[in-house]
């Protein structure tokens, strides 16, 4: 069974086509890197897979169509760290918030505390439960978000740029945490270096279309699509002519 199956998926935002007619499937147990230039549609695709943005076409998660999917405790989501704003929140509270699909808001019992500790141990942050999330380094914050994503021991984990803005040492720790977890993984990446050994497959988006689907190290022509000129619509909206970076 496929962990994720997408057929003819399209997303339009503000009248602009962001995702265009994507069809692919990810089998259970795969670790897939999702690459593409800035603006290629990676984050929009992730949001569509999670039902967070309107789309056309079909998405199936763990064998169930998205419009009927309710087993959200089987899905772990790790958002971009820059998109998370937390004030006066402890590490334990951040991680525990990932269990709310199973428990009512405000519930925090012994079993939940044990799962929080186990998740933090898995990412190398045992003993940091009572520290404030905002007082941690960028790499530590990212590992807390990964712990939040795995606290329910989900079958499918989707991570949006877990290596963004963290140093090389933290990237190594994060990669070890990801590679050491047994689940289907879809990871948005800018480069494959940190996670290359764990990847079983790579998808590359270019201007909202699937430009490459294959071996973890993309072929030269596929990698070229990872560093392409900005589309015409970007120049019209911004008045500038930026170049994508990998």
What percent strand? Answer: 25-35%
Find the structural class using helix and strand composition. Answer: alpha/beta
Order of helices and strands: EEEHEEEHHHEHEEEHH
How many whole angstroms does the radius of gyration measure? 18 Å
Q: Mind explaining what this structure looks like?
A:
The structure is a single chain. By secondary structure, the protein is of the alpha/beta class. It has a single domain, classed as Rossmann fold (3-Layer(aba) Sandwich). Helices cover 26% and strands 26% of the residues. The strands form two sheets. A six-stranded mixed β-sheet has the order 6-7-8-3-9-10, sandwiched between helices. A four-stranded antiparallel β-sheet has the order 2-1-4-5, with helices on one face. Helix 3 (110-122) packs across helix 4 and helix 4 runs parallel beside helix 5 (168-179). The longest helix is centred in the middle third of the chain and has 13 residues, at 110-122. The chain is globular, with a radius of gyration of 18 Å. The two termini are 32 Å apart. The relative contact order is 0.18. Residues 219-223 and 226-246 have low confidence and may be disordered.
């Amino acid at each position: 069974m496929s962990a994720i199956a997408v057929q003819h998926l399209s997303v339009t935002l503000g009248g602009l086509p962001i995702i265009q007619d994507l069809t692919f499937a990810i089998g259970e147990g795969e670790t897939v890197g999702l690459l593409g230039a800035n603006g290629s549609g990676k984050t929009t695709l992730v949001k569509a897979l999670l039902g967070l943005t309107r789309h056309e076409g079909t998405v199936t998660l763990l064998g169930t169509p998205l419009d009927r999917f309710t087993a959200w405790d089987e899905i772990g989501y790790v958002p971009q760290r820059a998109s998370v704003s937390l004030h006066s929140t402890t590490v334990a509270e951040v991680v525990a918030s990932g269990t709310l699909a199973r428990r009512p808001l405000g519930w925090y019992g012994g079993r939940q505390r044990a799962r929080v500790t186990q998740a933090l141990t898995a990412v190398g942050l045992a003993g940091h439960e009572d520290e404030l999330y905002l007082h941690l380094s960028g790499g530590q914050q990212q590992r807390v978000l990964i712990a939040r994503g795995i606290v329910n021991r989900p079958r499918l984990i989707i991570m949006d740029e877990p290596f963004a803005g963290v140093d090389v040492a933290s990237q190594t720790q994060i990669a070890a945490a990801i590679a050491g977890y047994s689940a289907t993984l879809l990871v948005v990446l800018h480069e494959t270096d940190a996670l290359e050994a764990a990847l079983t497959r790579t998808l590359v988006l270019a201007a909202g279309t699937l430009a490459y689907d294959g071996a973890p190290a993309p072929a030269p022509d596929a990698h070229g699509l990872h560093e392409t000129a900005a589309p015409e619509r970007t120049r019209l909206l911004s008045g500038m002519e930026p170049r994508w970076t990998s």
